[in-house]
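Hello forum,

I keep getting stuck at the same step: I have a sequence, I want structure tokens, and every attempt I make locally crashes halfway through. Rather than fight my setup again tonight, could one of you with a working pipeline run this one for me? It's a single chain of 57 residues.
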Amino acid sequence: MSADEKAQAKGEQLKGKVKKVVGGAVGNESLEAEGRGEEVKGKVRDAKEKVKDIFKD
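Reply #2:
Ran it on my machine without issues. Output:
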């Protein structure tokens, strides 16, 4: 997995987690849902890169 894409995936997960926590803390359901979505998107990107690595070898 390229380091750049892995970093983007982890960054997206972190950004989503922060939004989810902040949204929950202030009672903003929209922000919380957006954070959950970004977190999942980052996890999917990470998984996709791992699969690509498996087939490279």
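The CA atoms of residues 1 and 51 lie 9 Å apart. If your local run keeps crashing, start a new thread with the error log.
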